[in-house]
Amino acid sequence: MNLLEQLALGWHCPLRALRECFRSALWRPWWPLLAGYVVALLALAFAAHPLLSPVMAPVVRLAAGDDALRYPELFRRLPGLWKWAQLALDALVTPFAAGYSALLWSERFHGVPLHPAHARAEMLHRAPKLLLAMLPVTLATVLGNAALDSLASVRMSGLSRALAPQAIGALLFFVRAACFYAVPMVMLDRRGPLRALLVLPGTLGKGLLPAVVACLLFALVQAPFAVLLAQPGALAARLPEAVLGVALVSAFVSVALAGLASGAGTLLYLSSLLPGEDEE
Question: Which of 43, 72, 209, 211 gets the highest tally of CB atoms within 10 A of its CB?
Answer without folding.
Answer: 211
